[in-house]
Amino acid sequence: MSVATALSTAGVQGAEDLQLERDTKGRERLAYKRDGWKFTKFEGHRVHYLQAGSKGPPVVLVHGFGASGYHWRYTLPAIAASCRVFAPCLLGFGWSDKPLVEYNGYDIWPRQLASFIKEVVGEPAVLVGNSLGGYGAMATAARYPDLVRGVVLVNAAGKFEDVKAAVVAPLEAALEGPQRDAARAPLREAAGLPSGTSDSDGAAAAAGRGAAAALRAGNSRREVVVAAAEQSLLARMLAPIKVLLGRGAVYGSFLVAKQPARIRQVLNQVYLNKDTLDDDLVDSIAQPANAASAAEVFYRVITGSGTSINQLLASLNGLPVLLLWGESDPWIRPASADRIIGLYPAARKVMIPAGHCPQDDAPELFNEKLMQWLSSLPK
């Protein structure tokens, strides 16, 4: 049940199928529609999107992990008077299909967004991305620069690659045996890099250490090779079990996380202003999670690979970038915004008193700052 108190019969400019409502504070937003709005195709998959506005430069709003185009319910009508606005659901989320494909953040969603811009929007657009959508926006701009006029990062997700790794690697390589083992952790800790190894690295290292010990003990080279091969074979045999155990843990977590009560609890942790947390928002997240393939998609997304933020920013080549950042985000803190500015000094940063999703948490201020920046872009 929506918290809206009044419906607008006029709908949204340029989109007769979108109806407006007012929340408990009188703020205008989209009225929830449980079966979604428009659909198009991407590589044979059905992709959902919302559209509003009949004139002005195009803006594509890209939601975050587990959300949908509806998460822009306050932004879409607010900027539709001066922009053509689109809010697609990324493949695997919302009302879009959830195929069992590889969910590489640098590949699948940038391809989808590029196709969407070419086939639906029809001209280069500004991308506005929240959380995972921010990463997707950066990746799309890096891969398809001719299709993107600017990028707005809203508490954008993604991993940083510390440039100090280039210094630590040769230092580690210069050390041998126990020296390298003893120095590895403090070196990487000083550089701000992870000190652990992956399971496959650990298995290989263990096999190597075992082989070296066997040779020192006087075993024949053939015996050592056989023993190392057996260890390697065991590691390969155990790998699928580790994957299954990992998948099982993720599936179990997903079954808990998709419950409406749990969704509301999580949102309550990452929203500063609780008045926009309502049943419609919760249902827009919970309903798609009941799809048959949703748990496997969840697993593939969180275990998928990607490209570092450093590399993406280095590929933007002076593209206009705005950071609209919720300053009370417990997941992606303001320090991440500062780090992006350090890597891409041409970006502008605006902090907003909000949590992880400022477009829904503090919609009036968010929309004001977004429109100010959009109006400053070259025509």
Automatic annotation (TrEMBL):
Q: Which GO terms describe its molecular function?
A: catalytic activity
GO cellular component: a single term: chloroplast
- Where would I find the AB hydrolase-1 domain in this sequence? 57-363
Record InterPro entries: AB_hydrolase_1, AB_hydrolase_fold, Epox_hydrolase-like
Stored Pfam families: Abhydrolase_1
The domain of life is Eukaryota
- Segments crossing the lipid bilayer: none
Q: Under what name is this protein listed?
A: AB hydrolase-1 domain-containing protein
UniProt source species:
Elliptochloris bilobata
